[in-house]
Design goal:
about 65% helix, mainly alpha, about 120 residues, 6 helices
Amino acid sequence: MTFERQADAKRFLIERVLEQAEMEGVSLSKAERHMLSWSESDPDFKPDWNLASSLEEEMGDGEFENKVTGLIRRAFERDVATHRDARYLYREARAKLSEGDHYILVMLDFSLGLKLRKWWPF
C-alpha cells in the first residue's frame, strides 16, 4: 500500500493514534482530535481557531505533543509486533506527509525518529 495523497497518509496515522488511545482508555478532546489533523498545506483541512484556542486552554503544546507521541510510539510497537508490513506503512505515511506541512509529522518524527528512516542514504 502506498498513499496517493497526503490526506490519506495523515488519516492512516490519526486512525492509529485514535485506536491506540481507545485501547488504553485515553480520552482525546474534540480540540485534541482537531489538532491531529492540523496542517498548513492540506487543502482538505479547515482550521477551527476556536478549537485551537480551546486546546491551549486545556493544556500546553508540550503536554499535547507528549501525549500524542506516546500514543504513536505504542501504536507503532503494537502494529509492528502484529503486522509484518506495519513498519513499511508508517514509513510510507511519513514520506508522503513530508511533502507538506503537517503537525502530526512533528510528533511522528519525535516519537519514532530513526525507526522510520532507511539506513542507506540513496
